[in-house]
Amino acid sequence: MALWSDTPRISAPPNTQDIGQVLSYVKDLANTVAKMAKDLEFLVNGNLDANNIRANSIETKNLKANSITAEKIQAGAVTADKITVNELSAISANLGHIVAGLIESVEIFGSYIATSYGSFPFVEMSNTDNMFGAYKSGDNAIQIYSPVERLSPVIRFTANGINSFLFYDPSDNTFSVTSSYANIDISTQGDLHLYANLVRLSGWNSLWSNGEARTLRDELDEIDRRLRSLGG
Question: How far is Cα 155 from Cα 131, in angstroms, rounded to an integer?
C-alpha cells in the first residue's frame, strides 16, 4: 500500500480550452481519488500500523504537534521489543515492581535486597541497618552489622530468640564471644582472657574437669590437705 506522502496530490485543473487536456485531467483526478479511497478503506478496516504513521512531528505555519500522543496509544500496545534506550534513566518514572531474568554489570546504591518477599527462609542486605542477614525463621538467624563505631562488624547469632555475639575490639586488642548459652566472655571484662602467648583466668576455680567433676582449685586443695596430713 502506498504511503500518504507517496500518494499523488490533486493538482489544479488546467487552464485550457483543449477538451483532450481536460479529459486527461479528469481521468487522472479519478484515479487519484480512487487510490486515496482505497488507502482510507484499508486504514479504517484495522490495518493501521507503523508503515502508515510518520514518527516525526507535524509542522504547519502556526502549529507543531507530535504525530502520536500518549492518550492515543492503547494500554499494552507498546511492548519491550519496541523500546530502545541507551540508559534506563531515559524512562522517567517510578518503575514499581520489576520482574527480571538477569541483570549484569550494574551498580546499586542505597537499596534493600532480599532473596524472598515476606516468607522464610531468606537472605537480605539492608540499606537501613547497613546489615547482612540470613534468616531461617524470626527467632533463628545470623546477622552482620556495626552497632558501635569502635568495634569491628559484629556477628549476631540468634537461636530460639536468644542472641550470641562475636566481634573484635581494636581499642584493647580483644576478640570477644558473648553468649547467654555458654556464658563465655573472652575480653578484659570476662573470666577468661586469651592472648598470643598467655591464657589468663580469674582463678583456679575457672578451670573445670568434666572427667573428675572438679575444678583445679579443688585438686590443689586436696593435694594441700594430703601434704598437711603427711607432715602432721
Answer: 10
What does R_g of the chain's alpha carbons equal in angstroms?
A: 43
Q: Which of 144, 148, 147 is nearest to 157 (CA)?
A: 144
Q: Would you give the DSSP letter of residue 61?
A: S
CA–CA separation, 19 and 199 (whole Å): 124
- In this structure, the number of other CB atoms found within 10 A of the CB of residue 176 comes to 20
Q: For 6-47, what is each residue's pLDDT tens digit?
A: 555 777 888 888 888 888 888 888 888 888 888 778 777 766
Using CA atoms, how far residue 79 sits from 46, 98, 138, in Å, is 19, 15, 41
Is residue 113 located within the same domain as residue 148? yes
Verdict on whether the full-model pTM lies above 0.85? no
- Our count of domains for the chain comes to 2
Helix, strand, coil proportions of the chain in percent (round to 5)? 25, 25, 50
Provide the sign of the torsion angle of the four alpha carbons 118, 124, 126, 129, taken in this order.
positive
Q: Residue 160: inside a domain, yes or no? A: yes
Give the domain extent around 6.
Answer: 1-103
Peptide bond into 121 cis (omega under 30): yes
Place of cell 499523488: 8
Residue 92, all three cell numbers: 522517567
Instruction: Quote the CA–CA distance of 196 and 57 in Å, as a whole number.
Output: 78
C-beta separation of 129 from 146 below 8 A: no
φ, ψ for residue 66, nearest 5 deg: -70, 145
185, 186, 191 from 199: Cα distances, Å: 13, 10, 11
